[in-house]
Each structure stands twice: as C-alpha cells, then as structure tokens.
Design goal:
Elements lengths: L5 E8 L7 E2 L6 E2 L2 E2 L4 E9 L2 E8 L8 H13 L6 E5 L19 H21 L2 E2 L1 E8 L3 E3 L1 E3 L5 E3 L10 E8 L5 E8 L11 E2 L3 H13 L2 E6 L5 E3 L10 H20 L10 E11 L6 H10 L8 H18 L6 E11 L2 E6 L2 E2 L1 H10 L4 E6 L7 E2 L10 H8 L9 H18 L1
Parallel strand pairs: 4-15, 6-7, 14-16, 20-22, 21-23
Antiparallel strand pairs: 1-5, 1-8, 2-3, 5-6, 9-13, 10-17, 11-12, 13-14, 18-19, 19-20
Length: 434
C-alpha cells in the first residue's frame, strides 16, 4: 500500500472488420476502408490502497445495460471495484454501433463479445499491471475546434449546423502523467465536441480527435487518449458551416486540435507527486414529468398517422408512446428517478461521468460551482440516456430536445438541469471533503 499516486495505462485495438456497420446518422452505412484505427484506452489510478479505472473507447456511445456489463467484465479482469470504473466514449460517428437505434446501424453481438469486451478486459488488466509512481501536470488552452451546432433558421426552427452565437465550452484540458525521473507515462485530452466531421462517410476513423491524439503522443512520448466533454450541443467547426463534412475535413480540423493539445501540454509548469486520488459513485435524483391523461395521449398517438408508414426514430417514438399508454393504464408512473454518477478525482482534477449527451451550459454551471479547479465532465460516461439539453433550450425544440422529451416512457421534467447541477456539485463537494 502506498500513499503516493500511481498510474498505469492499457490500450487495445477495437477496429471492426471492413463491411461492418458504422454508427451515426441514417441511413446506415458500412465500412469500406480504415482511415485510422480505433482503440480503447484505460487509465488505472492507485492511492492509499484504493484503485480506479478511467477509460475511453473510440465508439459513438455505449448503451445501457451494455455499459454495465462491460464495466463488470473490466472489474473482474482487473480487480478494481465495479463502482470505481468510468467507461466513456469519444463519440466518433465512424465506429461500430454499441446501442440499437431504429433506422440506424444494427448492433453486432459478435463484434461486442469477441472483440470489444475482450479488448476492454485486457486493457483494464494491462493498466493495473503497469501501475507505477507518477507525477501529474495539468495544462489548458482556449480552443475553437468546437462550435454550437444548433443552428437557428430564419423561421426559428433548429437545424444541425452551426450557431456562431450559441453556447459551447472553449477550454481544452490536457492532464499528463510522468514518472519521477521525467519519463512519460501518458496524457488525456479533454474537450467537448461531436466527432462527426467524417460522420457520413465510409471510412472507419476516430475523426478529428484522432489527429490530436497521435500528435500529442508523438510530441510527449506517452500514450494519449481523448475524453469527450459537453458534446450534446457542440459540433466540429467545419468550413462548410455544417456539423458533418468528409475525412479530409476531419483531418484538417484535427490538425487544429493537435496544435491546441500540444500547446496545452507545453504550458504545464508544475508536476506534482503529492496528489490524492478519490472515487465515489452516488445517485443524483431527477424529477419526472407527470404522465398525461389517457385521452390526451391517445390523441397524440393518432396524430402520428399510419404507424406502418413511420420509419426510424419516428417509429421508435410511436412505440414509446404505446409504452407510455400502457404505463398509464396500469396505474404506474413515478415522481423521480435516480441517475447513478461516478466521479474520479486526482488532486485538483475531477472526472464526472455524465450518462447523457450533455449540453454545454449544464457542465459549465457545474464547473462554476465545483470545488475542483479542473472539473471535466464526460458525456456518455457509464451509459447513455440520450441527450440532456439545458432548460433554456427546451423552448426552442429541435432534434436533441425531441429525444429528451420523447425517448423515455416517462420523460425527465423540464427543470432536470437544475436538479442535476445541484446534485453534481453536492457530490463533488462531498468527495472533496473526504
């Protein structure tokens, strides 16, 4: 047992074979080439006999309950407690599907069971086996790689594009680890933006974040990984004014991100060995909307028209309305629902696993009131409950708001943001006091 911080890193290839389905945007597409390989990277931390795992996979997202299953497998392989593990996703739309969504690519059980899960277990075990004393350095920089993607049309409707006046988080953070003699261990890059620059194309790719990963890895000499932040309303800042482009645009934007990441890393002035690692998992309780009257819901279902003519997400929405009707008729329904949330802190840095595609205003508010100088929220951390829009955006509607209000049998209430922010800050304060 040691009272100093130890860090280890494991990484495994999770690139699917050519011909595999790629997740992101309908209609679904198959992989025709490999632009760059995909990985799962696991950081193991140990302090005073307590261990935790912080991991990121180059996939779009990992649905529930699959995320729970994978974390349990990682726990068994590494000996790290299940509730001390964060499993997040870089949110590339050019990787294999890890959640079934109507109208999009189907999940491949063979890929998950024979490639992804074994890779996750091996990376977790490797990370623990590689634990050694570490110094920690943190650097940050203003980066305009991302832009608010909720474009507002002249008629007020919301489109997937770019809103130059919208909220986004411009801070890119690099957390770096080295041995006491100065030898590099590795780095993590944190930034919030969709990895969708190449999101409608046939290449397997990490998208723009892959270029930044490779460049910082080459410059520092340490294994590097990307952790996505508040990407729910933030897309890549592409020259076409859209949220998707092509592989070349992804590489170009990645070069811009690479410069920012390297400069953030070079800005590190202090390396510390006396930083404690702490970890906790607690529930944040969110209110649910009251169920509507049965007659009102029936009218909403009938307004959709012939269900046989509905496709994709619209048919999924119809099916959820039927589930909601069954819940009403059974006398079910709840007032609130717990959302399990894990936080790993390393000195002044806190990694908050948010199981949503979370909007930037929510995580910016959490950071504002957090006791940790570097509070890094991770979208799609330990599962995915679709989008989590900030309350000010509900009135505008749009794709993300529609999913938040529709794709749950009993949706979260409109003021869920406030409850989540307060709950997250309470959780962070409690951890900081331990």
């Amino acid at each position: 047992m040691t009272s100093s911080l130890s860090v280890g890193i494991g990484r495994q290839d999770i690139t699917p074979p050519l011909g595999s389905w790629l997740m992101g945007y309908a209609p679904a597409r198959r992989a025709e080439s490999v632009g760059d390989p995909l990985h799962i990277t696991v950081f193991a931390f140990e302090y005073a006999g307590v261990r935790s795992l912080l991991s990121t996979a180059d996939v779009c997202l990992i649905g529930n309950p699959l995320s729970t299953e994978i974390r349990r497998e990682m726990s068994a392989a590494s000996g790290v407690p299940f509730d001390h593990i964060i499993l997040s996703a870089t949110h590339t739309h050019s990787g294999p599907p890890m959640r079934a969504t109507a109208g999009e690519a189907p999940v491949d059980p063979e890929y998950i069971n024979q490639l992804f899960i074994p890779a996750a277990k091996k990376a977790a075990a490797e990370a623990v086996a590689a634990l050694r004393p570490a110094l920690v350095g943190v650097g940050e920089i203003h980066s305009d790689v991302g832009v608010n993607r909720r474009g507002i049309a002249l008629n007020g409707s919301i489109t997937l594009g770019q809103d130059p006046y919208g909220t986004y988080d411009p801070i890119m953070t690099v957390v770096s680890f080295r041995e006491p003699d100065g030898k590099a261990i590795g780095n993590l890059i944190h930034y919030g933006a969709h990895n969708t620059a190449s999101g409608k194309n046939p290449e397997i790719t990490r998208d723009w974040c892959g270029v930044a990963i490779d460049r910082l890895e080459a410059e520092s000499g340490g294994i590097t990984a990307f952790f996505n932040g508040c990407e729910g309303d933030t897309g890549p800042r592409l020259p076409n004014g859209q949220t998707t482009g092509n592989y070349q645009m992804a590489q170009e934007l990645g070069g811009r991100a690479a410069i920012d990441a390297v400069n953030a890393w070079r800005s590190i002035k202090e390396w510390r060995a006396d930083l404690p690692m702490k970890v906790t998992t607690e529930d944040i309780t969110l209110p649910l909307k009251p169920l509507p009257e049965e007659e009102t819901l029936i009218q909403e279902i009938e307004s959709l028209g012939d269900p046989e003519k509905l496709v994709g997400l619209h048919y999924s929405g119809y099916a959820l309305l039927l589930d909601r009707l069954e819940l009403i008729r059974s006398g079910g329904g709840k007032q609130s629902e717990p959302v399990s949330t894990t936080v790993i802190s390393v000195g002044p840095v806190a990694f908050l696993a948010v199981p949503f595609e979370v909007f930037s205003r929510i995580t910016l508010r959490i950071r504002q009131y957090s006791p940790y100088p570097y509070t890094l929220s991770l979208s799609n951390g330990n599962g995915n409950l679709f989008y989590f829009p900030s309350q000010d955006q509900l009135i505008r509607g749009g794709y993300e708001v529609w999913l938040f209000t529709s794709f749950k049998t009993q949706p979260f209430a409109d003021d869920s943001e406030q409850h989540y922010v307060v709950g997250a800050v309470d959780l962070l304060n409690n951890l900081n006091k331990q």
